[in-house]
Amino acid sequence: MDLTNLQQQHKRVLSQLENDGFSLVHRLCEPALTEQLLKVSREIEADVKNILGKKQIGIGSRAGYREIVQRSPGRWDIPITPEQFAIAHQQMPWWTFITDILGQDAEHAFSGVVSSEPASPEQHWHIDSPHEATEHHPAHAINVLIALNDLPLVMGPTELARGSHLLTNHLANPTLVSDQLVYQHAGTSPVLLVNGACTAAPEYCSSAMSAGSCLIFDDRILHRGMANRSDSTRHVAYFSYRQKGYVPYTHFESPRSVCDT
Q1: pLDDT reported for residue 120
Q2: Which of 27, 40, 56, 109 satisfies CB 3.0 to 4.6 Å to 240 for a cystine?
Q3: Is residue 134 left, alpha or beta, with left meaning phi > 0 and alpha meaning psi from -120 to 50?
């Protein structure tokens, strides 16, 4: 891609993130990087699940462990640091998007892999962190999801409610409950965001992703992982970033370790 096209792509991604709350960038990662992320993810996931063994684990970060959380049935979230991935995230192809949105002093918050087993159901709609003020402010946290294998719709890629990052502000809308937005709640949906208002509910958006493609989105957008109706496990690496000084609301909350006896 020549310089002009790169600049146009960059401008498009930033505009979509501001207006829609997300942007899908096809094949942003080179195959070697995608393969490296997948290899490390599989190795660490196998080690953690081997240690977990038959230990009891529920649904959600509070019911999990520091090393593994079951976000919904059959959907496993395992934290992996950039050092474990053997990468410098400042050298990653998405880093300039992060700094343009969060500032040059943006900080790494979390990273890891989410693996959705065959027959894992769709998640409830949720956001990853709440708004911080009554007025709408620019994003305080940005997530990057990288498809580690080709993800057709049957494998359940992430579904988002377009523009909902502008509507999930519980401080401006007293009908919304912060914990019901952040923690998966059966009653949460895009329609809830406009309940009683003369405004159409946000459009639902999901797209197939080729290996190496990246879905970049605002932490406050309403989204969910779709059901995996295929016969294969879906692997998606994630890297989450925050403005300097912002304290993440929740992610891995359990104090216990799979290594505890």
Answers
A1: 97
A2: 109
A3: alpha
Domain assignment present for residue 260? The answer is no
Angle between helices 3-19 and 95-102 (to 10 degrees): 50
Tokens of 244: 């300097």
Rounded to an integer, what distance in angstroms lies between the CA atom of residue 110 and that of residue 80? 8
- Give the separation between CA 248 and CA 79, rounded to whole angstroms: 15
- CATH number of the domain at 98, please: 2.60.120.620
Mean pLDDT of the chain: 93
- In a domain, residue 255? The reply is no
Structure token digits, residue 261:
């006896």
**Could you report the per-residue pLDDT of 234-252, keeping only the tens digit for each?**
999 999 999 998 987 667 7
> Residue 97's domain spans which residues?
3-242
Place of tokens 């998966």: 184
- Is the entire prediction scored with pTM above 0.70? yes
- On whether residue 186 sits in a domain, the answer given is yes
The pLDDT assigned to 107 comes to 95
CB of 220 closer than 8 Å to CB of 38: no
Q: What are the CA-CA distances from residue 36 to residues 163, 181, 249 (Å)?
A: 33, 34, 30
With beta carbons less than 8 A apart as the criterion, state whether 237 and 84 touch: no
CB 154 within 8 A of CB 229: yes
The fraction of the chain above a pLDDT of 70, given in percent, is 96
Would residue 257 count as lying in a domain?
Answer: no
Using the predicted structure, report yes or no on whether residue 197 has a pLDDT greater than 90: no
